[in-house]
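Re: that chain you flagged

S.,

Sorry for the slow reply, it's been a week of failed gels. I finally had a moment to sit down with the sequence you sent. For the record, here it is as I used it:
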Amino acid sequence: MILKQHTIATLLPLAAALLLSGCSAGTEEGPWSDTIREYGSLASSDFERDVLSDGEITQAEYDEAVDRFVSCARDQGVEVEVTGTGYVFEAAPSGQTHAETVVHDCAIGTTSLIEGLWTAMQQNPENIVMEQLVVDCLKDAGAIPDSYDPADFVQDYQSGSVAGLATDSPALTTCMENPHGQ
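Prediction finished late last night. Pasting the structure tokens below so you have them in one place:
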């Protein structure tokens, strides 16, 4: 058996979707309100619908989502350890395992929508266009030229390389995961 770690890095597809979707900020409500409500239409459980219906995700709601996920997995015999950046569970070295299936299934209706949004909200509380944040972070790191802009980023990222950086390069990974460095 090996340990598999689900971390915020595994949320890069969600981050990329948020990056490329051009989500707009809410009006008089919080900057994430509209996006959260949009995700509410994708909810697969009453719990998710309730959490997402008011356009905000509180710390208590996020914690409850994680608790529900962990309880679901443990009820099916999969021990999950929550870490500061995700969770760890035991799995076989290759192939789809019972543990991976349980983790996937338990995330649906608990953390599958909420966790990614919560993470994005923590990393970008003002819901600034993510492409700009990532480009600024890469410029601050000296990884891209000053002339590089968010439109270049979107085009390059979709083709698999950002200003000559592989999409799994340390600088790009760091800036995608947390462009504010918090």
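What I noticed first: Residues 130-177 form one domain.

Talk soon,
D.
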